[in-house]
């Protein structure tokens, strides 16, 4: 639940010692070389630039699966990952494998530059040892950052595969953005995102791990968060394209993210996943999705030598129905990795943000979102936590066959939304 001032989560303070005790009871010693890892290794190798995002994802997933209080999980993950990054990583270095012919790599200088590859399994095992050490130390004294009052959020998220053979969507809800990346300035930050993959889930999964990790380290983050998000999309696209060429991946993903920094909302997007702001019961359009039929997108594609044609829908070069995305290695540069971004000051009259993929917005117009949410909140089982699930069901009932993901970030207490506005006529 978002509020104007930080609120102490008493339950978190009470749960922290018990959580640490339980974890150390279940894992009384660091893992032996023969012991299985308690999490899935993120692939065989990682580049140095991928390490922070991938290991933070692994640690947060493990701690969340054990019901760690979110602020504690973020602080522990940051402690373990930062300790590992400060160590000598040369022991994890793997010799580069000549998996591709020079012709497959192209002529770009950055693709010919040597890239250090690190053993992902070794890094994951070392990460657990550092996580275990931090838990042991924090049993005696939990750091102030993990005990400090945090702004409280109510977020409802739901996703379904629907009629598709595979689930290619991914979403991110990270209220503890600052804690996960050790940001110590006075600006509260929370991050939310939806990524809608196509041609496989690799690109969507990669973007859900790396966009926010890259943004957190961008020098523009403090002064120009929107530009930091744009740069993060661009760099994540470059990172994934290198991985795609090396591992012969063909997937891509659209994406939309929202970073709430203090009283300002910053959004960035690629493709047709969208974010909508609802204020005083009215939908506020924040963005224009990237589709091939947009005249400026069509002009850009044709200027590069590509084309836009209509089959069952408008498509780039007769294939993709989106004109911007992370990945899609064989459709670059026609399918661009350059995101758009924008910022809005929040005045306190805003009710919630809704982020969703095209599986939702293709069948639910913007102007109907507020009435749908209100009707769900007013129902006999009305609950802010279940709103996303009910919105997904509504999209499915309206005929959506695609993967559907909806994330609703409440900026006010959901029950307050059922009260008439002060100047509204009463029946």
Automatic annotation (TrEMBL):
Record keywords: Apoptosis, Hydrolase, Magnesium, Manganese, Metal-binding, Phosphoprotein, Protein phosphatase
Annotated ranges, domain PPM-type phosphatase: 154-411
InterPro entries hit by this protein: PP2C (IPR015655), PP2C_BS (IPR000222), PPM-type-like_dom_sf (IPR036457), PPM-type_phosphatase-like_dom (IPR001932)
Keyword NADP belongs to the record: no
GO MF: calmodulin-dependent protein phosphatase activity; metal ion binding; protein serine/threonine phosphatase activity; protein tyrosine/serine/threonine phosphatase activity
Renumbered residue ranges of the record's region Disordered: 1-42
Biased composition (Polar residues): 1-14
Enzyme class: hydrolase
PROSITE patterns reported in the protein's UniProt record: PPM_1, PPM_2
GO CC term, one of those recorded: protein-containing complex
Reaction it catalyzes: O-phospho-L-seryl-[protein] + H2O = L-seryl-[protein] + phosphate; O-phospho-L-threonyl-[protein] + H2O = L-threonyl-[protein] + phosphate
Domain of life: Eukaryota
Biological process annotations from GO: apoptotic process; cellular response to xenobiotic stimulus; intracellular signal transduction; negative regulation of cell-cell adhesion mediated by cadherin; negative regulation of DNA-templated transcription; negative regulation of protein transport; positive regulation of cell-substrate adhesion; positive regulation of chemotaxis
Enzyme Commission (EC) number: 3.1.3.16
Bias type Pro residues, positions: 30-41
Cofactors required: Mg(2+); Mn(2+)
Subunit structure: Associates with FEM1B.
Sequence similarity: Belongs to the PP2C family.
UniProt function note: Dephosphorylates and concomitantly deactivates CaM-kinase II activated upon autophosphorylation, and CaM-kinases IV and I activated upon phosphorylation by CaM-kinase kinase. Promotes apoptosis.
Protein's name according to its UniProt entry: Protein phosphatase 1F
Organismal lineage: Eukaryota, Metazoa, Chordata, Craniata, Vertebrata
UniProt gene name: PPM1F
């Amino acid at each position: 639940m978002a509020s104007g001032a930080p609120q102490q989560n008493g339950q978190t303070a009470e749960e922290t010692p018990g959580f640490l005790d339980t974890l150390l009871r279940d894992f009384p010693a660091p893992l032996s070389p023969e012991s299985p890892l308690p999490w899935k290794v993120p692939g065989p190798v990682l580049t140095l630039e991928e390490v922070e995002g991938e290991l933070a994802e692994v640690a947060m997933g493990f701690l969340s699966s054990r019901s760690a209080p979110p602020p504690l999980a973020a602080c522990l993950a940051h402690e373990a990952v930062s300790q590992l990054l400060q160590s000598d990583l040369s022991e994890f270095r793997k010799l580069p494998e000549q998996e591709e012919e020079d012709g497959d790599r192209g002529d770009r200088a950055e693709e010919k530059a040597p890239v250090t590859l690190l053993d992902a399994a070794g890094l994951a095992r070392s990460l657990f040892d550092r996580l275990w050490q931090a838990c042991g130390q924090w049993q005696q004294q939990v750091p102030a950052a993990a005990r400090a009052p945090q702004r409280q959020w109510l977020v409802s998220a739901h996703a379904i595969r629907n009629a598709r053979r595979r689930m290619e969507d991914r979403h991110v809800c990270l209220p503890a953005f600052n804690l996960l990346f050790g940001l110590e300035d006075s600006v509260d930050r929370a991050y939310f995102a939806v990524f809608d993959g196509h041609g496989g889930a690799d690109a969507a999964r990669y973007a859900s791990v790396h966009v926010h990790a890259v943004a957190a380290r961008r020098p523009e983050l403090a002064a120009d968060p929107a530009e930091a998000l744009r740069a993060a999309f661009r760099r994540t696209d470059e990172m994934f394209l290198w991985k795609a060429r090396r591992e012969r991946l063909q997937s891509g993903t659209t994406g939309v993210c929202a970073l709430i920094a203090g009283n300002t909302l910053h959004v960035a997007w690629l493709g047709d996943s969208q974010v909508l702001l609802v204020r005083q019961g009215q939908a506020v359009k924040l963005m224009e999705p990237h589709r091939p039929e947009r005249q400026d997108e069509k002009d850009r594609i044709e200027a590069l030598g590509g084309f836009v044609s209509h089959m069952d829908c408008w498509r780039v070069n007769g294939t993709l129905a989106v004109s911007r995305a992370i990945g899609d290695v064989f459709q670059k540069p026609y399918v661009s990795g350059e995101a758009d971004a924008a910022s809005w000051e929040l005045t306190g009259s805003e009710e919630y943000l809704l982020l969703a993929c095209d599986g939702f917005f293709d069948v639910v117009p913007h102007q109907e979102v507020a009435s749908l949410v209100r009707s769900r909140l007013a129902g006999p089982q009305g609950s802010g936590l279940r709103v996303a699930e009910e919105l997904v069901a509504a999209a499915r009932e309206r005929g959506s066959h695609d993967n559907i993901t909806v994330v609703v970030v409440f900026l006010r207490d959901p029950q307050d939304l059922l009260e008439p506005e002060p100047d509204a006529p009463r029946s």
